[in-house]
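Budget justification note: compute hours in this period were largely spent on complex prediction jobs such as the one shown. Inputs:
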Amino acid sequence: MDKKMIYGRVAALRERMAKEGIDAVVMTSTDDHASEYVHDHYKVTEFFSGCTSDNVTLVIYPETAHLWTDGRYFISAAGELEGTGIELMKMGEKGVPTAHEHLKMNFPARGVLAMDRTCITHKDACGLTCGLEAVVMDIDPAEGIWTDRPARPKSRPFILDETVTGEGAESKLSRIRQKMKAAGARFHFVSDLAEIAWTLNIRGDDVFCSPLVLSFLLIGNESCSLFMAEEAVTEELAAYLKGIGVEIHPYDEAFSFLKENTAGYPVLIDGACTADAYFAAVEENGRAVDEESPIELMKAAKNPIEIEHIKDFYLRDSAALCKFLFWLDKNVGEIEIDEISAAEKLDSLRAEVPGFLELSFPTISAYGANAAMAHYAPQPGACASLSKRGFYLVDSGGQYMGATTDVTRTAVCGELTEEEKKAFTLVAAGHFNLMYAKFRKGSTGKVLDAFARGPLWAEGVDYNHGTGHGIGYILNVHEGPQSVRWHSAPYTDGVEFLPGMIVSDEPGLYVEGKYGIRTESILLARDDFENEYGKFMAFDCLTFAPVDRRALDLRYLSDRDVARIDAYHAEVFEKVAPFLNEEEKQWLYEMTRPLS
Amino acid sequence: MDKKMIYGRVAALRERMAKEGIDAVVMTSTDDHASEYVHDHYKVTEFFSGCTSDNVTLVIYPETAHLWTDGRYFISAAGELEGTGIELMKMGEKGVPTAHEHLKMNFPARGVLAMDRTCITHKDACGLTCGLEAVVMDIDPAEGIWTDRPARPKSRPFILDETVTGEGAESKLSRIRQKMKAAGARFHFVSDLAEIAWTLNIRGDDVFCSPLVLSFLLIGNESCSLFMAEEAVTEELAAYLKGIGVEIHPYDEAFSFLKENTAGYPVLIDGACTADAYFAAVEENGRAVDEESPIELMKAAKNPIEIEHIKDFYLRDSAALCKFLFWLDKNVGEIEIDEISAAEKLDSLRAEVPGFLELSFPTISAYGANAAMAHYAPQPGACASLSKRGFYLVDSGGQYMGATTDVTRTAVCGELTEEEKKAFTLVAAGHFNLMYAKFRKGSTGKVLDAFARGPLWAEGVDYNHGTGHGIGYILNVHEGPQSVRWHSAPYTDGVEFLPGMIVSDEPGLYVEGKYGIRTESILLARDDFENEYGKFMAFDCLTFAPVDRRALDLRYLSDRDVARIDAYHAEVFEKVAPFLNEEEKQWLYEMTRPLS
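Corresponding output:
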């Protein structure tokens, strides 16, 4: 990205600000659907800043500009913003004001604050403007400036059979209507793309790496209206939707339809993940019942059919990763491998798995110090070559016709320092401590976090990201509401683990300029047993790939840790070997030998 | 307690119910101040049921009666209620409705529900009556029935010097007024006895085992009114209170004074721990700002002077416990010792510590299977004699002129089964795992709970009580707001550990009919270090008494566990030995030898 182009774009926006009397423009990196990953059409913050992070708030004043992002992106954002004149604001760091605090300090009283109210959630809009004496102006900041802006996507959706979903859309709609009734709502307005896809058992290709259909859904007591690009509706889809009682309307009519048809009624609408403009449309004539969508929890607990497919695809996905790790181990230092070619190798192995649709996110392929950036993405022409020393971290996943996968392994390329080995071992100890945890039914992710962090905290180190997130089913690779984290997060703190929920287990350790380590497997929560003390739950691991034993320093592991690693590795060999050729099998045998 | 007397009392109440058209009477085991431990005057639920638990809700219908209490008291309450015709309702057990749910199912529509609104908190009153079509009648159920009811207490308060409290009352009042201002309140009505005693630096003897003064406090922007028994006011106290700007009023005038003097103003009042009647008094003419009292958090984080005294008294208190454990070890099986005489021995050793005021709670002295009742209190004539096998559990503490202590040890009396050793070892592992935990600043008790429970959960066992509670300073032995627990608890979930907070670390394991084990030490939270990962905190242990090494089975301990126990025991010997005679010292030396 040419830094001069950024200057020009910001300058053009400031020209408009001056003309229209705007004192500040606020932009967030989301779309009309509060998506974490968005189609290129919506990358307005990237257009104006060059910053590719997916959790950005950008505030442009007449003289200065400031961009907030979180700890995952501090290093990459610093590089991207260098020379643009936009100041990086590190979220959550000591002494760094939030965007709201910054506005309170710098925004003139009774000034004009411009934002695109369709691209900011109601909750964020309220939070940003709370206590500001601001006149809010609804504008599209890119209008007239982003001349080659990509059009909104309109891929053709496909329908998932009940043998894949385990539950028909009519059954799902009926369960949702029961929850609407309990919440005292006549309608439920759904803007979250994954919730819509899950409810209707349809998938599309409108968002990079997420098989989603750009749409809104308005569920009524007896009606159901889907708003999507009409050009994308096939005959098959039209017939299917008609069959399940869903009417199709053009995407652009959602706003006016919502305003007119819900007037006078209570509408269940989640202010935390609905765009401010749509929330306002409901509030204008109806009554917003501002609660979490019941769909989120429904889709988080996978049903038995989904679990069956998930187990099957996770194993095949694990086998592809093992083949890659074998290839890497044989070839590193022997042939030219850089971060991009390594990622391409893994991506191609994954693409060979029958049922593969696309990647679930761009492969994070990071060698040596680059891996200290938790969400590093190698750039062509500026990526590192692998050699026989240190670690190589690869975080990757696929979309399959029966699973969304996510896995991270940190592979040994050659010689390691004592410090690197210790760091790797602590991460492994935390990873297996959570994987093998037993816990009381009713526990939340906050209760479980210390299992993963305990071994790191004991040595005075930590990782500045959550330990675990939920994962969709042929949907987003990050989904809620469950999570494993020690930090308080109002929307997820109270979420108890339910059988069928899947969650990542991904402790790490990052030392800027030196190395980055992360070990991530995906766990399936299940009921374990009940006795006089209560009900206990446990996890089944869905991911089967070796945790590089050559980097494990037994001095930092207890006997129990060692027994757990050995048990896991025995299972890895047993399950994955049938998918490998003789040479790969021999390698896996070595990599999964008992430590003890 | 004669069960027939209970019958008679309940019958008398039912006669009144019939006469006055009352469909149900609700009583809770608290006083006008939402106290956990109450003066005998307020033991109305005990009077009507014989149940001595301190967390009771009793509902009396014309035909049936039901008593709710929590897991600590299931076993003792079952015994106490047997033959009384009152049904035990186990709080939190599967299929057991709450008192509110029970009323919703059994209370007649538009019926009359009687309760003493001064002896139930506003929050509990709302919770109980929510959704019931009930006419609430404010009565004292004991009136006319409890003829020999003890009078309200009126002990003479004493004043604590700033060398003991570390902060004068005027400074405390000024800090409270700042918080009132931030909350937009003109007055703060305080009914919690510990908060009043802390604020004014006075103590009394109105509640068994808690040096409190029965009183209310109304803090205004510029005024401050204390309501207490006038007969108890000494000249010295009157002069002291005048000096700090506090007016004295009779205890009984609090209600009318509150109603008249706060009319039209916003009053900070905590509905969760203020009696419903007083809350209503504020709401009648003023506006209730229903928030947690700011005093709770202020008194929870001990100041440096308090910490100095606490460290000193905890050490002396530990030495008294060590002397007792030595005496027990020498004499068990040799002379006649029963649960009561053992408690008397410990109580007398504690009383010898200079600065001792009284016990902080009745000593829990439980041998063998009796210890499975987590809050067992031995009864004269019905208590167990100790012999040379199994465990003896003692949970005890004192009030000193510079600390409130609390400690539990489970001592080996003789032969143990493998199961008993394993259980003891798991409890010890959890206990030391929390004691030596390092954790990120900002962690709550929910994040830390898995440190203590992890080793037990891993073996499929647990204890049905919290891991840790705060402790007052010459105040209640239980205080908030911090706690260590995995269960969600709305008022404490978000409370982060602050330097200076003290908290108990008391995992246990109880097998009904067999044994009960608990190991409890008190921990002081402090800042530890800050590095590139963030700020870390740690605990200092305040309690120094051996954890009986004869019951530790090394097979269930990691090398790290063993190293921690050895380090702790080395410190116990070093600190406590100077307080012991030669024979005791020799014994302690043996008890604190390294395991490895």
